[in-house]
Each structure stands twice: as C-alpha cells, then as structure tokens.
Amino acid sequence: MTGCKSDKSEFDKILIFGQKYTDAWNSKVPEKMASFYAENGILIVNKGTPAIGRKQLAETAQSYMEAFPDLELTMDSLTKKNGTYRYYWTFRGTNTGSNGTGNKVNFSGFEEWTMNEQGLVQKSLGTYNAEEYQKQLEGI
C-alpha cells in the first residue's frame, strides 16, 4: 500500500513539473523552458534532428517563440507508463514572427519524458501531426 502512495506523490511532482514547464513556454523566455532539461538533455521532435544540451534546447524554444509571439501552450494531461511520462499539450498561436504567414495554428501533441535522478528531463521524444500543422501554417 505504501508503494502506491509514493508513486502518487512522484506522479504529483511530475504533474506540477509539467504545469511549470507549460508556464516556462508561455513566459516567452527560452532559457526557462531549457532549464527543465538536464544540462545534456535531448529533445527529438517527430524523429528529426535532436536538440542536445540547454543551449540548443533554448534555441529550439526561441524559434517557436519568435515565430508565434502570441503562443499559448496548455497542458492537456500527463500519464505514466513503463517509467516514462507523457506530457500531452496543445499549442495555439499566430505566425506573425519574421517571415510569418499570419495564419493561426491550433494543434496538439505529446512529449514522452525520461527523467534523470535530479528530476529533470533527460530525454524527450516529441510527437505531433506535422502535416496538419503545415496545413494550418500555410492556410490550406
């Protein structure tokens, strides 16, 4: 019975972590988002080129923050399975940054987090429907 209780408190900690991670994205300060990752943390989105380390993670976040100055990220849910957490999110914004299309996007996805012993994201595998995102971005 005590095992369940500690699992719940660990889950609760990651739930709070997810809410703060969401707030970091919404702060529009890329380094805040990157601070939720280990120093050598990795983010791979849709099996693309990995962002490795906080500098590259911040650059990745900055690219979205600049492209969508009004971006709003919401945390939809959090689940745990086989030692990893899935952070489900929805991204909304208008592409009014430099060379922007002026179109609004509203798409959802998730990140599958492997946490390190310090409670930071060591590896995140992000997934979203890139085709749907592209259609919205281009106004198709």
Automatic annotation (TrEMBL):
InterPro entries the record matches: Cyclase_SnoaL-like (IPR009959), NTF2-like_dom_sf (IPR032710)
Top-level division of the source organism's lineage: Bacteria
SUPFAM superfamilies on file: NTF2-like
Protein name: Nuclear transport factor 2 family protein
